[in-house]
# Entry
Amino acid sequence: MNRTVQAILLFLVGGVLLHAGVSGLYLRYVKAGLQPLVLAAGAVLVLAALATAWYARRRPAGPPGPRVSWLLVLPVFALILAAPPALGSYSAMRAGTAVTAPRIVAPLPDGNPVRLPVIGYADRAAYDHGRSLAGRTVTLTGFVAFDHAGAPYLVRMLLNCCAADAQPVKIGLTGRVPPVLAPDSWLEVTGSYTARQAVDPVNGGVIPFVEVGEARPVEPPADPYESLG
Amino acid sequence: MEERVWSGSTGDRLVTAIDEARRRAGRRDRDEPGWNVDPVLVVTLVLLAGFLLQGPVRRLLATPVMQSWMTVFVAVVVQALPFLVVGVLLSAALAVFVPPSFFARALPKRPSLAVPAAGLAGAILPGCECASVPVAGALVRGGVRPSAAVAFLLSAPAINPVVLTATAVAFPGEPRMVVARFVASLAAACVMGWAWQRLGRPDWLRPRPHEHGEGGTKGEAFWGSVRHDVMHAGGFLVGGAMAAATLKAVVPATWLHAAAGHPVLAVLALAVLAVLLSICSEADAFVASSLTQFSPTARLAFLVVGPMIDLKLFGMQAATFGRGFALRFAPVTFVVAVAAAALTGAVLL
# Structure
């Protein structure tokens, strides 16, 4: 591949990074905090493409680029044509829950019902025996997943850096669960603490339950993942 | 013996290697008539075919397995590219703006001291493993002893402040895990450096040629280096991301649960998992902390092995230093890293 093709490839890769960073598409794959880095990397690659094209005009010869560089076409295609969705129920039910050891949690915020991240409810319900949740109503947002037996769960993926390290946080649904649920559809559940728990068959982690009072379908949030701090 | 060749004769051998690599690259291109087609035409046709076929391709990719594969693949690439770009910029700046004599003065003269000094210097590169590979490549081209560059390459992604802070956050109340990670990673990096100094041969290490000395301004050399490193390491990064996504989609997590009970098997299982998953070293501590069914030593092995060798790193090392280097280096690194983690774990955890 000559200099011109290398410039085109660099421009395409930089361009899709900029596109993903500006359009919010990046939130499906990496944590929100990486946005400035993604944008900067895209800008540098576009600059490198322009510089390559500029210098290639004056000095077109040079050793050919490596053939492995053609692989860079694949993420460009994947992001522009397919734009794969954020990890959903399939990945969630194959992996073990992230609730495996007590974590330090802040005091419950004010408000009734109080809006909590799924991991915030799971940590309190699993290790606090519901003490801080007593007498409170919580609102949780997540997607629906089913286990092999068909029992419904409310799940949110917990992200530390990118989707490769995502771990599900699973909460069992009990009480007034809607009769018809589709996997991967997003739900906003308002309910209260129940002492019921289950063991995750994949890694032995804790799956707390929530007593559903009301559940309504919602649009997927802009950032489909949750992260700690 | 490699010290004599590399530090003494001002890189004559390196120049020969570059010439040879050029000759081989040129010959390969002439031998295969299929690649004489105008590459601009190829790239246009590939893009056009992709757009025309997007309907059928999308249907094919609609199954949950393929979707999660693609998501993980794109995620690894999107997450690693910014760090690769940071490393590539730093590497280009080192190559173009820092005179080689600087590194010779900055590191101790005695090779046995230069290795730990370079290993400790890894602590100042705040990034993950994607950044350290191109920087180590620039150090070798700048005349740094390969043994010292190897120690830097292996220690930088594991012992820098960003990664150690992430480890402390992921293991609250267990500061010994942070200490153990620092000690085991630095020890493994130094052992690899000293081993390279004793046993390494210069012809194993073939840093890919950079087109310096063709004339041109510093700007041209800088952007030439950036383009070269991104095209090489980026291509291999994509290959590594595909492998990591495949393994994550194919291997069931319940296998791990079975291995956790056995003390030796647990260490090996997490070491292999670190290689296969290719997680960024800034995030691996959070994954390790969730693997609670495993012993602390096994989780330490996960943290020590991952930043030193994994699928995407192997590809990037092959791109930067040559396939002969990566094939010899990767298995030895794996063994040394596991041993360092097991010993440190036995003492500290």
Notes: Chain A has a mean pLDDT of 90. Residues 35-58 of chain A form the longest helix (24 residues).
